[in-house]
Design a protein that fits this description.
Layout (H helix, E strand, L loop, with lengths): L1 H16 L10 H27 L6 H9 L9 H4 L1 H14 L3 H7 L5 H7 L12
Helix pairs in contact: 1-2, 5-6
Length: 131
């Protein structure tokens, strides 16, 4: 609701700004009013979000780790080792059967579990690009 109001205020400011002549715009009061209202609304919404939602949130590290380890997007790490076609085969097999990428690569006999663990390291897939 806050965003809708701010969008409306922005439209009012834009239209009012287009109505002035020679740097003398009689719509400046409505422009200032809407700008100040938007600032107040956004500030209050940020405080309310922090107080009623963000403050006190703790990560569930087990769920995060499970979701990370089971993500099909990790297949991109297999691309240099297996090639695009085999990596795509692994991802499709994992998706179709509901297994993890690790299980899929072992079932398809493309890598051992240990080789998979050495190649697919999510912590190496984040951060600045290494050239």
């Amino acid at each position: 609701m806050v965003c809708c109001q701010v969008f409306g205020n922005d439209a009012t400011i834009a239209f009012a700004g287009s109505q002035g002549n020679f740097e003398l715009n009689v719509y400046k009061p409505v422009m200032a009013y809407n700008l100040l209202q938007s600032i107040r609304l956004l500030g209050d919404a940020c405080e309310s979000f922090n107080e009623h939602c963000a403050s006190g949130i703790e990560p569930n590290r087990e769920v995060i780790d499970r979701n990370l380890r089971n993500s099909l997007m990790l297949v991109t790490a297999l691309n240099p080792k297996l090639g695009y076609d085999n990596a795509a085969r692994v991802a499709k097999h994992a998706h179709r059967t509901g297994c993890t990428l690790r299980e899929a690569v072992v079932q398809l006999k493309l890598l051992s579990g240990e080789e998979f663990d050495n190649v697919v390291r999510p912590e190496d897939m984040v951060g600045p690009l290494k050239l």
